[in-house]
């Protein structure tokens, strides 16, 4: 036995040495390619995506994935970018921050992607941001919270900033003559800092938050929060979350018979919300992207054509219409492809290109990025929408 | 190679030299594979390897807890998170550098584990497992609710570690940074498993009451292992925080605790290197299934790899409860060829023929013959409405044999249990060599210089004979967890303990069986092992609960001779015995119990002629052997 | 006052669901000493089966029956495949086995039903309001059916020969064997009961609390806490434990903080385990050696 072990050891040692030599050689190659500033112009272009496909953000991540797959398919039929194949690598972050960081590490270190799209929600996006910054990888988040791009160099986003959403909502409240807000917000990254922002933006019109309740993104019982909102007696109540929680909260609100008008955030633009909220959604008002009310848009709306084409393609592929979230994914993909087409795969060039995007018409609005604004949308990107007979409906008086 | 005697699988607490080597070989193989990985694997595999190494540390801690202390924790991720959060706070908010921060992080986690463990470890089995699960959930909730810890978003921007101007940024670099940490963890764990502490815990696992009776403070050791296990988790947590760059409440989540459990179980609970193998297997499987399942089943999204975990967990538990470790040892055994186990035949105990009165195990400092050692006053135990033992008094002095007899159900064993601390009396007091011991744990009794054997054997079944006896030396050795982990101070003491244990075994004619698994011995010899184990404590007082039961005639005679020689050496012996004839021949004094009441106490001669005793024995069924014996003995 | 009533009512209907899950824990634990960590998955699975059956056009009642029967079957199969073959069931083994089943079932549900949370159609949609307390008809159904099921299970254990034999297995395994009660059969029946009751909990809860592939985890854990509050071996204790937990959670959420809701359950669990292992409602038992 002793001898055998010795032999095995020698063999293992030899093998290890050979392999280490090979590995060294390999890493030299890799080092040369990655280290040089100019990217090689061969092989497939890699676009990574980190989405909330399972877990609390599934109702966002799944349509986003579908949109990306649809667009990647279309691009492939067109023959890629300048004849180069485009490979889309989608990772699920399970709606968790660490899952997102893990997936981001993998995409950057292992797949060596040229650009990353995602994540679907704020928390996971915030978790990916430092990795994007430290590895100098361009990243386009699909999530809302402005913190994702505040002061960022390499990170951009396509969903409307919550700041512009709140500006839109405050405008509407002021017009309706409401001055106190009862807020029930998502307890995760999406809802963090929202109450403060309402207070800040509403200060001018004398609008402020008088009660704040929280709910977990996977909560199912909202009685306690809604009872407390009822007691707060504000002029308007705001539910700030994503489906299904936002829908369930809407139901609990209705079920408790609260008469106060209710507004929701831009986080609810999908069928899941309509399904979970059911009749309870009738009459609530939310600022959403134009996607959900495409056919009600006037023909001269600059977005109308893009939106209807996307809706038709998407419906043909998946048998159901897209949500605003698939719209965020669409915009991110188009921005990425545009940059890749113009600049190739040099990360710095891609970043610079993204930062200088002007009047880029997308699903969620018309993007104009600046070094200070990596989100690129103003409050005009949002339409006030309500629900009538289970369908999205433009609020006739848009308040501007 | 063939023909060499092959012994049982190395197990925790099994202390043959082979078992040590077994672990060393396992660890060496794992270490080699770990080091070789970066040379042969692609970067994607190394990326998986980084997580495997991180989780391996936490799983290793859990494996120690389960293997050594026999306790299941479903809250290991809670400690993982405490370590990670502490590290994150220190690094990002107070700008500590990584290394000192991690030292404090581990210390904080250990303190938390101590505070959690003190109340929780009084629970057992299911209850402990579920209470730890609750602990994990509470950590998650607290982290979620704390704005200081960044609420649900957690803490961002933890940098990759930098040392000597080098940033450990890529998976390979981080992997190579972690390998020595894991190896160190393995080495420390192995040392503890093979130490006095590991042996004692293994004994507690097999029979807590027996281990306690040999002076092992089970609760204290459990708390120690629990804290140690948390320390491992916290090291993993700090490594995790730096690698991900973000830490949030999910780190304390139940599914992560389950993952640790899976790793420990897959590798083989208690096998030190198994946790590392398990971690690599689980992480590899996780990654593999994540890729494979969506290909097999288009449209499958998310954590579908869990299905593999579920199936794996159940099949392993049913078919391979020892995990991969079991496969490995099995394979090694087959490689070595199967040799017959050494003589399984019923050998009679043969001591050197020496006179009955040659003192055995006399030692300096033993109380002089006739000094009162054990004082029992008014000892009473009621179970509900039944009084099992009523106002029992007894004094036992050094150098005498006292027998406790009585019909079945007379309360003899209950009295024993109360005296030795296993059962708390309803009333009364027990003083052993000046220490009040009633209602305290058996290890207190043992510390006072007294121990016992058990009517229904309480052999440490997973240890060798030698291992059993070495547990008996627990109080005669001192090295603690730290000394054990660092090996050097403990090694000399270990050797001395083994030597004295072997001497004792030779003395009792068990020398040949020293390296056999105690559970494999025939019944009579197991009794003798139990007595040898008790003697290893070097007690001044020995309580024997039916030591003759199940022994052959020769074995009984040999045992009687042994007891006489111990008496000659100055030891006090109290025995409960059914074999009245043997007792009357052996004891200096005899106490008789009936229905919990002491109805007689005196020399064998006095008791033999005591009318109450005769009545008690004749009052029961006439066929009763004991009654016949008294009657016979009383009417020569 | 209205708030308190509203919260109490919400807590009771939530608690009734916990109570049913808790009965499942008790049923299995009393017979074989196994804590079935897959108990919550029984409920989730029933909810999903019913939802998809309704989705494919089955009438609601038929869908509910189908869900309960198929989950009961799953429970029985689980017992045969996973619990029965194990000769020496230790704490570690039983926890890991049931954890394995729970994990596998979860992933299976994810594969089959996808990641989204959905709600079953309520037995009676809508609701009404009494003295400012709004009540959904479904909540009344939950309370009513949970009450009937609890009574039925209680009656089974206390009044029928079969039920008494099952309890005998738990309390006096040797004696039970002597009088011819087979432990393996008893274990099978206990899983059948646990599966059925868990499934009923799942279909009742689904219209209000929604069901997804992972909703079994929380439900199972809360059900376990409820069972432990009741001492783990008493159906009555489990029901009271469930109701108490539900009410306590809603009150905590309403008056203290919604974030602490889950912590309360587990804090209570730890306190009860350490201070009163026999449960809040159980008779305090002599500590075993």
Structure description:
- By secondary structure, chain A is α/β, with parallel strands linked by helices.
- Chain A has 2 domains: 33-160 and 314-369, 3-Layer(aba) Sandwich (Rossmann fold), CATH 3.40.50; 162-288 and 382-394, Response regulator (Rossmann fold, 3-Layer(aba) Sandwich), CATH 3.40.50.2300.
- Chain A is 45% helix and 16% strand.
- Chain A has a 5-stranded parallel sheet, with helices on both faces.
- In chain A, helix 2 (58-77) links the parallel strand 1 (45-51) and strand 2.
- The N and C termini of chain A lie far apart (87 Å).
- In chain B, 56% of the residues lie in helices and 11% in strands.
- In chain B, a hairpin with a 2-residue loop joins strand 2 and strand 3 (166-167).
- In chain B, strands 10-11-12-7-13-14 form a 6-stranded mixed sheet, sandwiched between helices. Chain B has a 4-stranded antiparallel sheet with strand order 6-5-8-9, with helices on one face. A two-stranded antiparallel sheet of chain B has the order 1-4.
- Mean pLDDT of chain B is 79; it is low at 1-22, 338-353 and 620-624.
- Chain B has helices at 17-40, 43-69, 76-93, 98-120, 125-145, 171-193, 196-206, 208-213, 218-244, 254-267, 274-296, 306-319, 323-336, 412-420, 442-447, 465-472, 481-486, 488-507, 523-536, 553-568, 580-586, 604-608, 611-619, 625-634; strands at residues 155-156, 162-163, 166-167, 246-247, 372-383, 386-397, 401-405, 427-432, 435-436, 450-452, 541-545, 572-576, 589-594, 597-602.
- By secondary structure, chain B is an alpha/beta fold.
- With 289 residues, chain C is mainly alpha-helical.
- Chain C has a single domain (2-115, 126-275), classed as ABC transporter involved in vitamin B12 uptake, BtuC, CATH 1.10.3470.
- Chain C has helices spanning 2-32, 39-55, 60-83, 91-113, 137-159, 161-171, 173-178, 183-209, 215-229, 235-256, 261-275, and strands spanning 127-130, 133-136.
- The longest helix of chain C has 31 residues, at 2-32.
- Chain A binds chain C through residues 53-55, 58-59, 62, 187, 213-216, 218-221, 223-225, 227-228, 231, 244, 248, 255-257, 272, 275-276, and chain C through 3, 6-7, 10, 14, 110, 115-119, 127, 129, 134, 136, 208-210, 214-215, 250, 253-254, 257-259, 261.
- Chain C: GO terms for molecular function: transmembrane transporter activity.
- Chain C: Belongs to the binding-protein-dependent transport system permease family. LivHM subfamily.
- Chain C: It is found in: Cell membrane.
- Chain C: This is ABC transporter permease.
- Chain C: It comes from Modestobacter caceresii.
- Chain A: Keywords: Signal.
């Amino acid at each position: 036995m002793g001898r055998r072990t010795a032999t095995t050891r020698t063999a293992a040692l030899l093998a290890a040495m050979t392999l280490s030599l090979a590995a060294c050689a390999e890493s030299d190659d890799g080092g040369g390619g990655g280290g040089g500033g100019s990217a090689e112009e061969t092989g497939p272009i890699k676009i990574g995506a980190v989405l909330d496909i399972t877990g609390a953000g599934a109702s966002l991540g799944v349509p986003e994935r579908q949109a990306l797959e649809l667009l990647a398919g279309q691009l492939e039929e067109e023959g890629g970018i300048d004849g180069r194949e485009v490979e889309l690598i989608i990772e699920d972050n399970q709606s968790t921050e660490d899952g997102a960081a893990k997936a981001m590490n993998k995409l950057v270190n292992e797949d060596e992607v040229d650009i990353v799209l995602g994540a679907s929600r704020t928390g996971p996006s915030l978790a990916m941001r430092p990795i994007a910054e430290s590895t100098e990888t361009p990243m386009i988040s699909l999530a809302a919270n402005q913190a994702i791009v505040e002061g960022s160099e390499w990170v951009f986003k396509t969903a409307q900033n919550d700041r512009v959403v709140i500006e839109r909502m405050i405008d509407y409240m002021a017009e309706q003559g409401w001055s106190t807000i009862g807020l029930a917000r998502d307890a995760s990254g999406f809802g963090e800092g929202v109450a403060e922002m309402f207070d800040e933006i509403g200060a001018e019109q004398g609008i402020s938050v008088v009660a704040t309740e929280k709910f977990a993104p996977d909560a199912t019982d909202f009685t306690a929060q809604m009872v407390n909102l009822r007691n707060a007696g504000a002029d308007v109540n705001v539910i700030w979350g994503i489906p299904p929680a936002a829908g369930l909260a809407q139901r609990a609100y209705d079920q408790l018979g609260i008469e106060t008008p209710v507004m929701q955030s831009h986080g609810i633009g999908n069928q899941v919300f309509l399904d979970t909220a059911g009749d309870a959604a009738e009459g609530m008002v939310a600022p959403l992207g134009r996607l959900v009310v495409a056919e009600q848009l006037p023909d001269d709306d600059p977005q109308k054509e893009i939106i209807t084409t996307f809706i038709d393609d998407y419906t043909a592929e998946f048998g159901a219409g897209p949500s605003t979230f698939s719209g965020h994914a669409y915009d991110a993909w188009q921005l990425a492809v545009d940059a890749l087409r113009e600049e190739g795969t040099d990360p710095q060039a891609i970043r610079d290109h993204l930062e200088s995007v002007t009047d880029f018409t997308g699903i969620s609005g018309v993007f104009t990025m600046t070094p200070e604004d990596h989100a690129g949308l103003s409050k005009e990107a949002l339409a006030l929408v309500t629900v009538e007979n289970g369908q999205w409906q433009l609020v006739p008086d848009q308040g501007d | 190679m063939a023909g060499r005697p092959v012994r049982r699988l190395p197990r925790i607490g099994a202390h043959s030299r082979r078992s040590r080597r077994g672990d060393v070989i396992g660890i060496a193989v794992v270490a080699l594979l770990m080091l070789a990985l970066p040379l042969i694997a692609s970067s994607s595999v190394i990326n998986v390897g980084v997580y495997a190494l991180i989780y391996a540390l936490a799983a290793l801690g859990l494996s120690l807890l389960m293997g050594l202390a026999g306790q299941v924790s479903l809250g290991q991720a809670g400690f993982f998170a405490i370590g990670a959060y502490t590290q994150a706070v220190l690094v990002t908010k107070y700008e500590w550098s990584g290394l000192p921060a991690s030292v404090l992080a581990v210390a904080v986690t250990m303190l938390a584990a101590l505070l959690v463990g003190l109340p929780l470890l009084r629970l057992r089995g299911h209850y402990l497992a579920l209470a730890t699960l609750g602990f994990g959930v509470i950590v998650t909730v607290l982290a979620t609710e704390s704005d200081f810890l960044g609420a649900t978003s957690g803490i961002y921007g933890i940098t990759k570690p930098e040392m000597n101007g080098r940033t450990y940024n890529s998976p390979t670099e981080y992997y190579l940074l972690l390998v020595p940490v894991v190896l160190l963890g393995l080495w420390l764990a192995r040392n503890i498993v093979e130490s006095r502490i590991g042996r004692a815990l293994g004994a507690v696992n097999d029979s807590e009451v027996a281990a306690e009776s040999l002076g092992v403070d089970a609760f204290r050791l459990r708390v120690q292992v629990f804290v140690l296990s948390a320390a491992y988790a916290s090291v993993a947590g700090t490594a995790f925080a730096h690698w991900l760059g973000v830490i949030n409440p999910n780190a304390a989540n139940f599914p992560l605790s389950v993952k640790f459990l899976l790793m420990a179980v897959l590798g083989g609970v208690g096998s030190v290197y198994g946790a590392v193998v398990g971690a690599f297997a689980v992480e590899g499987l996780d990654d593999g299934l994540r890729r494979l399942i969506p290909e097999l089943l288009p449209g499958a999204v998310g954590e579908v790899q869990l299905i593999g975990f579920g199936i794996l967990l159940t099949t392993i538990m049913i078919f391979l409860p020892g995990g991969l470790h079991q496969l490995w040892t099995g394979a090694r055994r087959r490689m070595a060829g199967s040799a017959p186990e050494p003589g399984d035949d019923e050998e009679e105990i043969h001591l050197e023929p020496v006179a009955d009165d040659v003192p055995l195990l006399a030692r300096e400092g033993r109380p002089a013959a006739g000094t009162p050692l054990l004082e029992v006053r008014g000892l009473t135990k009621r179970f509900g409405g039944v009084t099992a033992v009523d106002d029992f008094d007894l004094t036992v002095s050094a150098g005498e044999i006292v027998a406790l007899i009585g019909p079945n159900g007379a309360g003899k064993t209950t009295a024993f249990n109360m005296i030795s601390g296993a059962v708390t009396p309803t009333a009364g007091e027990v003083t052993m060599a000046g220490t009040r011991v009633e209602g305290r744990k058996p290890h207190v009794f043992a510390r006072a210089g007294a121990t016992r054997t058990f009517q229904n054997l309480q052999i440490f079944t997973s240890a060798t004979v030698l291992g059993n006896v070495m547990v008996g030396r627990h109080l005669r050795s001192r090295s603690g967890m730290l000394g054990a982990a660092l090996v050097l101070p403990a090694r000399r003491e270990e050797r001395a303990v083994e030597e004295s244990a072997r001497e004792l075994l030779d003395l009792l004619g068990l020398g040949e069986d020293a390296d056999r698994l105690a559970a494999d011995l025939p019944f009579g010899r197991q009794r003798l092992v139990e007595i040898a184990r008790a003697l290893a404590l070097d007690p001044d007082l020995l309580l024997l609960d039916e030591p003759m039961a199940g022994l052959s005639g020769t074995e009984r005679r040999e045992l009687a001779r042994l007891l006489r020689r111990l008496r000659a050496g100055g030891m006090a012996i109290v025995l409960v015995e059914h074999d009245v004839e043997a007792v009357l021949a052996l004891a200096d004094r005899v106490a008789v119990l009936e229905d919990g009441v002491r109805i007689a106490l005196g020399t064998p001669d006095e008791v033999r002629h005591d009318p109450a005793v005769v009545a008690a024995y004749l009052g029961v069924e006439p066929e009763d052997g004991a009654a016949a014996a008294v009657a016979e003995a009383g009417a020569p | 006052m209205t708030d308190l009533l509203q919260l109490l009512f919400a807590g009771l209907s939530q608690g009734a669901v916990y109570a049913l899950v808790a009965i499942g824990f008790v049923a299995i634990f009393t017979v074989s000493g196994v804590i079935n960590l897959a108990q919550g998955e029984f409920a989730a699975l029933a909810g999903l089966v019913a939802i998809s059956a309704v989705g494919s056009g089955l009438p609601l009642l038929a869908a509910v029956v189908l869900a309960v029967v198929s989950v009961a079957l799953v429970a029985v199969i689980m017992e045969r495949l996973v619990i029965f073959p194990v000769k020496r069931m230790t704490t570690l083994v039983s926890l890991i086995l049931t954890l394995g089943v729970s994990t596998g079932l979860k992933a299976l549900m994810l594969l089959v039903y996808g990641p989204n949370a959905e709600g079953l159609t309520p037995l009676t949609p809508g609701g009404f309001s009494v003295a400012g307390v709004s009540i959904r008809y479904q909540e009344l159904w939950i309370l009513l059916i949970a009450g009937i099921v609890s009574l039925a299970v209680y009656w089974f254990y206390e009044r029928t020969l079969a039920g008494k034999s099952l309890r005998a297995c738990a309390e006096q395994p040797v004696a039970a064997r002597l009088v011819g009660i087979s432990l393996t059969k008893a274990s099978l029946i206990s899983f059948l009961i646990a599966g059925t009751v868990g499934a009923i909990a799942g279909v009742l809860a689904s219209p209000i609390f929604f069901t997804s592939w992972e909703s079994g985890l929380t439900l199972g854990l809360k059900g376990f806490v409820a069972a432990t509050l009741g001492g783990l071996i008493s159906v009555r204790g489990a029901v009271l434990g469930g109701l108490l937990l539900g009410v306590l959670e809603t009150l905590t959420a309403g008056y203290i903080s919604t974030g602490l809701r889950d912590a309360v359950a587990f804090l209570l669990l730890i306190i009860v385990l350490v201070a009163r292992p026999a449960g809040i409602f159980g008779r305090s038992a002599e500590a075993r050696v």
